[in-house]
C-alpha cells in the first residue's frame, strides 16, 4: 500500500463506465502465452484480485474450470457481469471484497492474479494470505504494462494523445500531488514486488514478456474515457468542476488533432510469476546422533 495513504471506497468511484473504452488492451496473446507457461489444461480455478471490469479475468476464463473476480467497487463488478454475458462466459463469478478481506471463504485456487492492483493493497498481509489459498506449486501472478521509455510518436498514422499536457491540465484542477480517492500519493505507488513475495515465502520467480506492437486508432471520446478511468483523475475528484474540466480537455485534444483521431502503440504485457513452494526445504545442520 502506498506510504501515507489509506484505502477508501472512492478510489475508482465513477470510473467503471469509462474503463473498457478508455484503457488500452493487454497484449493480444497474453492469455494464450500464460496458459502455455503455466501448462493450464482447463482444470483448477483462477482468482483475480482487483479485477475491475473483468478484462483479464474473462480472457483467462477458457483455461480454467472457473474464475472468480474480486473487487471492492460494485460498479466495476456490474461492468464485469455485463461483459461476461456479452462474451457468453459462463464460468465466471464476481465477489465484492477488498484484498485484505481474503480468503473470504473462497477456497483454493490454482493461480491468483493481481493485474495492476497489488500496489493498492497491504501487500505483506495479502501475499501471506494468498500463499495459503494456493496449493503447493500454485502461481502468484502480477500483471502490468511493461514499463519502459515513452514510445516515440514517429511512424504513427495520427497524433498521439498529448499525455504531458493532459497531466498538466489535471494538476491545474486537482493540485500538484497525485490524487487517489480522498487521499494523495506523495511518492506514487510502490514497486519491489519481488521483496514482498520473498518475505511471504514464494519462490521460483519468472518473468513473462508478451509483445504487443500493434498500433490502435483512438477517438477523442476514447482519450477522454481513458482520463476518467484513472484513479488520479476519476470523475468524482472534480466535483462541480467536472463539466469545465471535460470542456478544457476536449479543447486540448482538438488543438492536438483537429480531426479528433489519435493513434497509440499498445504496450507489451509483463507477467511476473512466483510459486508456492512444493515442499518445505530441509533445515541445514548436523545430523542427529544415532
TrEMBL record:
CDD domains of this UniProt entry? Answer: AdoMet_MTases (cd02440)
Cell inner membrane is among the record's keywords: no
Sorted UniProt keywords: Methyltransferase, Transferase
SUPFAM superfamilies for this protein: S-adenosyl-L-methionine-dependent methyltransferases
GO:BP terms for this protein?
A: methylation
Judging by the UniProt lineage, the source's domain of life is Bacteria
InterPro entries documented for this protein = Diverse_substrate_MTase, Methyltransf_25, SAM-dependent_MTases_sf
- Pfam families for this protein: Methyltransf_25 (PF13649)
Domain Methyltransferase: residue ranges: 47-138
The name under which this protein is listed is Methyltransferase domain-containing protein
The species is Micromonospora citrea
